[in-house]
Amino acid sequence: MDLRRVCNLTVLLLSLFFVHYKVISGDSTVVFLDSPTRQYLRQSSPQSGSFSASEISAAASVLLGFTPYPTVTAASSSKLNEVLMPNPFDRPRALLLLEVTGAEEFELVADHGESPLSGALRIKVAGNERADIQLIGEDEVSLVSLNEGSSGTECSDKELSEFASWMGGSYIENKSRPLNGELILPTSNGSFMRLHLSERTDREFATSLMLLINKIKQAKKIHQVFTKNEISPAELYTGRFDGIQALQDTYGKEGIAQSGLEVFVTSISKAFNLMQSAYQGQIVGIIAHGDELGFQVKLNYHPSARRLEETETSPDIAKLAEVLFVRRALAWITGIILLIATLLGILFLMNMPLTKDTLLYSNVKLD
Asked: Which of 13-22, 82-91, 344-353 shows the lowest per-residue confidence on average (mean pLDDT)?
């Protein structure tokens, strides 16, 4: 892991999240994170002002390699051209969509506009409609919810300790009672945030963040399975994090809530760098912070009749591995049968008795 790149991404994300602006009814902000090794987004900010939710959806569809919805107007196409690189044959076909609530009213801590990660864009989204991502076409898509199965899920002290170690912090376990210790996580400014898991809000923040990061790590395994297929589907990962909003509701909008946002940004920075390494830069991140804007994916594609429709809305790594094993087994069995049949044919041909019929079969002319 490149420590310098992680720090750069953390600083950039903080500068994008800690934004102080007049809160207009229904307005939200979307952050596009480009690959540091490949460029899918334009480096300069768009000149057309705010975007609509449908235009953000169209941008997501194009990044996945799909045709945007037919209702996209010429004006919207012009806006997309200000954000996306013009090469239609070079799309990441992998997208990480995250919604974060409670991060829209923080004041600016530091504006690092000269960050080396100049591919990141911050776009204001006007209106209060949801961003319906329409996926139209014959290509397959793998849609994975990073929050599925996380509701009400309890974790262990061991998992929290491993998460804290991965973050560069520590976990002080309470021997008398599980999930009642103290979680210490580093923030971006060099200090530490202390979460007392005996408090319900602290425990919810810590467990939800840990589960989200673990799901993002699992995306690497899913991608490794897909890369072994001849034709890999587009990959879309969606998630939502309400831990910062929970801290605000309990402790207010300053202090602990602000530290929680810094911890969230630090963890997402590290996780997104892991995905960048696994995908060799072929992935883009979209992070929306605002209570109104939300992503809703609508699948409207027609798979080719020559291929089996195997991709589910939430693929399981074990099932994908089973499908890959069956394919390989069938290929090996077919190859072995063909090899045996070929060898037997050669053997019988070389050992045929010399009769009139066999000589004629061997293309030998008899007088």
From this structure: 13-22
**Contact assessment for residue 313 and residue 237, using Cβ atoms and an 8 Å cutoff:** no
Neighbouring residues of 107: CB distance < 8 A, sequence distance ≥ 6: 18, 20
Give the three-class secondary structure for 130. Answer: coil
Least confident of 88-97, 286-295, 327-336: 286-295
- Tokens 């009749």 sit on residue: 305
Residue where the block lists tokens 């319900």: 200
Q: How many C-beta atoms surround the C-beta of residue 118 within 10 A?
A: 15
DSSP β-ladder status, 131-137 and 234-241: unpaired
Q: Regarding predicted confidence, which is higher, 129 or 286? A: 286
Single out the residue of 267, 287, 273, 289 nearest to residue 183, CA to CA.
Answer: 267
Angle between helices 200-226 and 317-350 (to 10 degrees): 20
- Mean of pLDDT values over 264-268: 87
Q: What is the 3-state secondary structure (H, E, C) of 104-120?
A: CCCCCCCCCCCCCCCCC
Integer Cα distance of 114 and 11 in angstroms = 11
* Contacting residues for 358 by C-beta, under 8 A, at least 6 apart: 352
Instruction: Say how many CA atoms lie within 13 Å of 306 toward its Cβ.
Output: 3
pLDDT tens, 89-117? 889 999 999 988 887 654 333 343 433 33
* Residue pLDDT, tens place only, 115-134: 333 346 788 888 777 777 87
Question: CA-to-CA distance for 98 and 213, rounded, in angstroms?
Answer: 12
Assign 180 to helix, strand or coil: coil
| CA angle centred on 94, ends 118 and 287, rounded to 5° | 55
Q: Which of 277, 262, 294 is nearest to 191 (CA)?
A: 262
CB-based contacts of 60, cutoff 8 Å, min separation 6: 95, 97, 131, 133, 286, 295
